[in-house]
């Protein structure tokens, strides 16, 4: 194999591994998306989209790891008791992040809540399943194989910044991404990516970032009734806005487009950066 593909140890360079993963993701996405499109609409389960995306990202990672003769556990899917505990801890953390943000906006007079009629426990469970799929899909795609190989290739700081930009750009097509809201939402989503990347680096597992992602989205949307990256839904509660600026409330895009969320997310990053973590990789962060 030409030297351009190999490093000094005669291993495939990490940049080519990332490129191979992207190509595999696109190919598998094309196949599964077309196969799913052939299923009659009446037979398509609600909320299946994120789980199909998860299958695409996980399948591409599995294929690349097979070539390296490495298991899925090596990218953070060692499904044991510790994994479950970190998933639960992350979910509570995501709940706390959104809870503190919402209470901050509430204290500043940005909105008040009313109880949403006809939204019961079933809706909470449905939202939990949906956002669990979103968390598994996006964390596997953005903090999984490609992110980890880029760390090995260019180091933690560069990989964190690049994937924070990728994560923010991936949300630019969402509803409500315009004007000043786009700026605040982009900053918050990039900060969230840094936070989720740190959660992986401190544990060497995808459980904690998946949990944070799940708790963040489910609390913001299904429980509190705000938009989730511009996607509206009926939550357990309904926020009634008081006409305050969107930089304070996040508006229809959700709390993650607000200044209070920048403060809360930034504080969480500083706290997580000070935590020594539980993985050898943490020493390189």
Description:
There is one protein chain. The chain has one domain. By secondary structure, the chain is mostly helical. The mean pLDDT is about 90. The protein has a two-stranded antiparallel sheet with strand order 1-2. The radius of gyration is 19 Å and the shape is globular. About 65% of the residues lie in helices and about 5% in strands. α2 packs parallel to α4, α3 packs parallel to α8 and α3 runs antiparallel to α10. This is CAAX prenyl protease 2/Lysostaphin resistance protein A-like domain-containing protein. InterPro entries: Rce1/LyrA-like_dom (IPR003675). Keywords: Membrane, Transmembrane, Transmembrane helix. Pfam families: Rce1-like (PF02517).
Structure keywords:
mainly alpha; CAAX prenyl protease 2/Lysostaphin resistance protein A-like domain-containing protein; transmembrane helix; 10 helices; 285 residues; two-stranded antiparallel ribbon
């Amino acid at each position: 194999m030409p030297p351009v593909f190999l490093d000094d140890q005669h291993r495939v360079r990490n940049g080519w591994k990332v490129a191979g993963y992207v190509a595999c993701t696109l190919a598998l996405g094309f196949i599964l998306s077309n196969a799913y499109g052939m299923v009659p609409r009446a037979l398509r389960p609600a909320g299946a989209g994120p789980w199909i995306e998860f299958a695409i990202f996980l399948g591409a990672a599995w294929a690349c790891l097979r070539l390296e003769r490495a298991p899925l556990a090596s990218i953070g899917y060692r499904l044991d008791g510790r994994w479950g505990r970190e998933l639960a801890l992350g979910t509570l953390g995501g709940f706390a992040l959104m809870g503190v943000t919402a209470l901050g906006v509430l204290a500043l007079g940005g909105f008040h809540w009313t109880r949403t009629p006809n939204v019961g426990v079933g809706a909470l469970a449905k939202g939990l399943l949906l956002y669990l799929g979103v968390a598994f899909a996006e964390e596997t795609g953005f903090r999984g194989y490609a992110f980890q190989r880029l760390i090995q290739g260019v180091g933690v700081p560069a990989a964190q910044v690049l994937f924070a930009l990728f994560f923010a750009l991936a949300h630019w097509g969402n509803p409500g991404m315009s004007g000043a809201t786009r700026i605040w939402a982009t900053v918050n989503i990039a900060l969230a990516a840094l936070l989720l990347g740190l959660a992986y680096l401190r544990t060497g597992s995808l459980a904690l970032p998946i949990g944070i992602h799940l708790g963040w989205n489910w609390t913001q949307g299904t429980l509190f009734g705000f938009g989730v990256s511009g996607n509206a839904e009926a939550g357990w509660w309904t926020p009634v806005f008081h006409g305050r600026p969107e930089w304070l409330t996040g508006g229809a895009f959700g709390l993650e487009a607000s200044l209070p969320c920048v403060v809360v997310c930034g504080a969480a990053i500083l706290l997580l950066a000070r935590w020594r973590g539980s993985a050898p990789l943490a020493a390189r962060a």
